[in-house]
Design brief:
It contains 13 helices and 17 strands. The chain is of the alpha/beta class and about 425 residues long. It has 2 domains: about 180 residues, Rossmann fold (3-Layer(aba) Sandwich); about 190 residues, Nucleotidyltransferase, domain 5 (2-Layer Sandwich). Strands 3-4-5-2-6-7-1-8 form an 8-stranded mixed β-sheet. Strand 16 and strand 17 form a beta hairpin. Helix 11 crosses helix 13 and helix 12 packs across helix 13. The longest helix is centred in the N-terminal third of the chain and has 15 residues.
Length: about 425
């Protein structure tokens, strides 16, 4: 087989990873720390040095396997490796080398689809987002008969099963572990990291960048305090833009939050001087959406505002009927779908960023919203462990949901504050 030189110069911390002879390597790293790139290079090296090997790259989803694994292989390695590659099957995401080795890129959505294979090498990318069942019932057994090797790399995801594996790997034979915070990568600029720290909550900074296992036990918004509370006030249409968040209900409580944003700051959420304030609320039992909107008009009038002062209403994205009714009252409505946890993370970052900045405030007259923020908690499993989801208890979730709708919708965390968190994992 001809010699090949790859355009890959690992940093010293990546070199330590490659030089390790441990059968199992566990890399817990922050965003952009180079964990996925290092794992891909390691997998290719093993395939080329062990003829007839059978390797899998497993990501949380099939789309992730293509984006982060297969496409990265084609874009970064394939041209250099062409003399050694027999063929590439696009549909199966399979690479076959001339020495008989093969690499297949797969999604980990269903462990049943992965059972029964025999592997010499395995990479589990973003392993914390692959289920423990997939690791325990499909992937780990696939390494038994050939004494296969594995690399598991990931950012943390609370104290889930990967945390337990991380703790066990400290003393387990044939295992080694590596901790790579984002700033270990010398190509990341200090300014970019500082900007990310300013717009992420302390919990998100610790998990996504410092690569620390952070518990979600207890409150969803643990940093919410008196420092986020301000005296009651009425915003003027000349100085503030008003936005509403609406979580409809009838048998359950309907919740509305009224958010004021200074017009001079009402653009991008990465403006560190942003000050958004919930200045009023509605928390109503047995009111349909028509009745809720009548109460909205009365609340606006109390502040000497009308519907024209409201720039947009953000409603539950699963309830199209509510959006249609609100529109008939003359409001611009948005009900775009958004993921719950990123939305919660974004609200958390406005309550208190990792840099110590508070940008979301609640007027003291909003007693139900304050109560909800203080009591909103994560659900618990039967064994007493925390679930990675907020509890729908009917007591604290409605006003918190309404807040999340307006904050996520207005400031669009998918494009601004979370842009660094969502960068490619290579």
């Amino acid at each position: 087989m001809p010699g090949i030189t790859l355009a890959y110069s690992p940093f010293p911390y990546q070199r330590e990873f490659h030089d390790s002879t441990a059968r199992f390597k566990l890399v817990v790293g922050g965003r952009r720390s180079g964990k996925s790139l290092g794992a891909l290079q390691e997998m290719v090296r093993r395939a080329l040095t062990k003829p007839d090997s059978n390797a899998w790259w497993v990501s949380p989803t099939l789309a992730d396997a293509r984006d982060v694994g297969f496409d990265a292989f084609k874009e970064q390695l394939l041209d250099d490796l062409r003399p050694l590659v027999q063929y590439v099957n696009e549909m199966r995401m399979l690479v076959r080398f001339r020495n008989g080795s093969r690499i297949t890129f797969k999604g980990g959505e269903s462990y049943q689809a992965l059972i029964g294979r025999s592997l010499t090498d395995l990479v589990v990318d973003e392993a914390a987002y692959v289920s423990e069942e997939t690791w325990r019932r499909a992937l780990r057994p696939a390494l038994v008969d050939k004494a296969g090797s594995a690399v598991l790399c990931s950012t943390p995801n609370g104290l889930n099963w990967l945390h337990g594996l991380w703790e066990a790997a400290a003393t387990r034979a044939n295992w080694t572990r590596f901790h790579w915070p984002s700033w270990i990568n010398p190509t990341l600029s200090p300014d970019e990291l500082a900007d990310a720290k300013a717009t992420a909550s302390l919990q998100e900074w610790q998990q996504e960048f410092a690569a620390e296992f952070v518990t979600r036990a207890g409150q969803v918004y643990p940093d919410f305090s008196d420092a986020n509370m301000v005296p009651a006030f009425s915003p003027t249409a000349a100085e503030f833009n008003v936005y509403l968040g609406l979580d409809p209900g009838y048998a359950t409580k309907a919740a509305v939050v009224f958010l004021a944003v200074p017009r001079a700051q009402d653009h991008r959420v990465d403006n560190r001087e942003l000050r958004a304030t919930i200045f009023d609320e509605l928390y109503l039992q047995r009111c349909d959406t028509h009745q809720v909107m009548d109460r909205v008009a009365a609340t606006l009038a109390k502040h000497k505002l009308d519907a024209g002062a409201v720039k947009r209403v953000y409603v539950d994205p699963t309830n199209a009927d509510t959006a249609s009714i609100v529109q008939r009252f003359g409001y611009l409505v948005e009900n775009k779908k958004s993921e719950i946890e990123p939305g919660i993370a974004f609200v958390r970052s406005l309550i208190l960023s990792a840099a110590g900045t508070r940008r979301l405030f609640i007027a003291r007259n909003c007693t139900e919203t304050i109560r909800s923020f203080r009591g909103y908690s994560y659900a618990m499993k039967r064994d007493g462990q925390t679930k990675e989801e907020a509890l729908k208890d009917g007591q604290h979730d409605h006003l918190c949901d309404a807040t999340r709708y307006v904050i996520s919708g207005k400031f669009n965390p998918g494009s601004d504050a979370a842009r660094f968190l969502r960068m490619a994992q290579l």
